[in-house]
Amino acid sequence: MNNKNAKHAHRLLPYAVIVAASQGEPTAVRAVLRHFEGYIARLATRTLYDEYGNVYLAVDEDVKNRLETALITGILDFDVAA
Predict the structure, then answer these.
(1) Alpha carbons 54 and 35: distance in angstroms, whole number
(2) Which of the two ends of the chain, N or C, has the fewest CB atoms closer than 10 A to its terminal CB?
(3) Per-residue pLDDT for the chain (82 aa), expressed as one digit of tens each?
(4) 82, 81, 72: which is closest to 32 by C-alpha?
(5) Cα–Cα distance measured from residue 7 to residue 49, given in angstroms and rounded to the nearest whole number
(6) Sign of torsion, CA 29 30 34 37?
(7) Domains of the chain: which residue ranges?
(8) What single DSSP character describes residue 53?
(9) E-strand spans in the chain?
(10) Beta strands 55-59; 45-49: pairing state
(11) Burial (CB count <10 Å: 0-12, 13-18, 19+), residue 67
(12) pTM of the model
């Protein structure tokens, strides 16, 4: 494993967690959701403006919930053997 791969290896989900999540294990599914929570929050972030034109960033909870649901669906549909 070269230095670039070693540097990012700690960010990977363990294979056992992926297998357990694909089998519907609630703890493993939560671990996958936790792993991607920052990415999901970033995708769900919206720019808002108040009446004075000030800019605010906020997480759109509806979008966040939809992304989490799509991830859970993808996890449960994932075939580890393929």
Answers:
(1) 32
(2) C
(3) 566 655 655 689 999 999 999 999 999 999 999 999 999 999 999 999 999 999 999 999 999 999 999 999 999 999 988 5
(4) 72
(5) 39
(6) positive
(7) 3-77
(8) -
(9) 45-49, 55-59
(10) antiparallel
(11) middle
(12) 0.80
